[in-house]
Amino acid sequence: MNKITLRVLRFDPKCDPSPHFESYSVHVHDGARVLHALHAIHDDCDPTLTYRYCCGTGQCGSCAVRVNGEPVLACMEEARDGSTIEPLNIPVIKDLTVDLLPYIKSLPIICPETTQTATMPARDVVANLKPLRSCIGCMACVSICPALSVSDFVGPTAMRQEMRLSLDPRDTKDRAAEAVQAGLFRCTSCQACWKVCPKEIQIPGKAIEKLRELAHYKGHTLPRHAEVAALIRETGRSVTQTEPSFLELTAEVMEPHGPVKKTVGFFVGCMYNLRLPRTALDAIDVLRRNGVRVVIPHDQICCGSPLIRTGQTEYVGTLKARNIAAFTALGVDTVVTMCAGCGSTLKHDYETPFNVMDFSELLTETGIGSPAHLGITVTYHDPCHLARGQGITEQPRSILRKIADINEMPSICCGSGGGVRAGFPDEAAALGERRGIEIEKTGADMVVTCCPFCEFHIAGHTNKPVQHLATLLLKGYREKENPCP
Q: What is the pLDDT of residue 125?
């Protein structure tokens, strides 16, 4: 038996003025789950502790709580000394028991055909249904959804159910229209929901984006999203040009400043090509300083992410074919991007004959020359499509530590993704303000990120300068070469 100590958040709305933590020391067996530790607290320390559980095997979802800030199933999460146990971020009934009823009531139910003409789902339909029907109703996804907290959005669990029913030939309702009314286009595509889902249901990609595609074909696309799609078809880019573009300012091949360690293709993306070209030039400078030959196809175009996220997919195949041809024609086997959204799209929505890497991922793999430490404190914003979309969190930080001190903040969505900034600017602003508050708490001198949309959006909600990792790293190199007196 092992003795462990846990902090548990206690709160009875009927008699407590506010939530408070209490610490408990209990003895548990090796490999005990959090649920076992809660049983021990209840049985040996405090029988008034309130929590839910049922199956104890990860199948019912009733025991979902937060452990060290992350939603988990108590019956599946190992109990570790020093852990903090809190309820899900849902209104509390008492202690660790939250009110799930409003979310359960919001789940759509099947509206079956009343005649005898309904047919059973075909085998291929069943295959598409399978990834959506393993939900256990734990509401972990609901508890962490940023859109639900600031807007009229029914939440990811209900959207998963809408998509499931839309695939079932026995259902008679227009699920796409119903989903639009329930806030379908308010999802920021942050992917937090499926990253905490104990059944790993990919709600953004398997449900919300598919529902948006259905909504688009039924004429429910938001006007601003349709304008972006028209711009992509007309120009190959999702934003308009405001200054000389990156592709106009660069040669097709940029040789390194020294021996060649690696040759890569560079995918610039729309924002860094047309709105923030200086930042992209900084990234090329950094790559060249670290022995990377950079090949830049000048006929590359938008990756298609804005179309995929908003359900307007009919032109995406053309974009994919043109981009793949642009890079394969120049013989590169690795393509690097500095935009989190582009990188996630190239990795997950394309089938490429080349490897795709983020800027920070490549530099961590190849190694970098030592920059000067700038003597500043920064906070790092995790772009959703980098941290959750690509699993890249440590690489940018390992580079940052060489040039600055880091004060961390919670990894939450800034509100700029999924077409929300264009379609629902008030919602995007509300999430941006939340990000600004967290930035202020860190006391940092600067915000660093690896996404142009995050960079652009966050800058409007903080008085701190916001820069891409590449720009700060280049400053470190230049400071080392020419130190200030």
A: 83
DSSP one-letter string for 126-159: HHHHGGGS------HHHHH-HHHHHSS---HHHH
Q: Which two tokens stand for residue 151?
A: 């807007």
Read off the pTM. 0.94
Phi, psi of 468 (to 5 degrees): -75, 150
pLDDT given for residue 289 in this prediction? 97
> How many Cβ atoms sit within 10 Å of the Cβ of residue 355?
15
- What would the two tokens of residue 278 be? 């200086």
Break the chain into its structural domains and give their ranges: 2-99, 104-217, 366-481
Are the C-beta atoms of 5 and 29 separated by less than 8 Å?
Answer: no
- We find that the CATH architecture of domain 104-217 is Orthogonal Bundle (1.10)
Say if domain 366-481 classifies as CATH 3.40.50: yes
> What whole-number distance in Å separates Cα of residue 207 and Cα of residue 294?
38
Tokens of 392: 């890249």
Which residues in the chain come in under a pLDDT of 50? none
CA distance 205 to 343: 16
Phi-psi region of 58 (alpha: psi -120 to 50; beta: other; left: phi over 0): left
Fold match between 2-99 and 104-217?
no
Q: How far apart are CA 193 and CA 114, in angstroms?
A: 35
The answer to whether 297 and 247 are in contact (CB under 8 A) is no
Structure tokens at 481: 């070469």
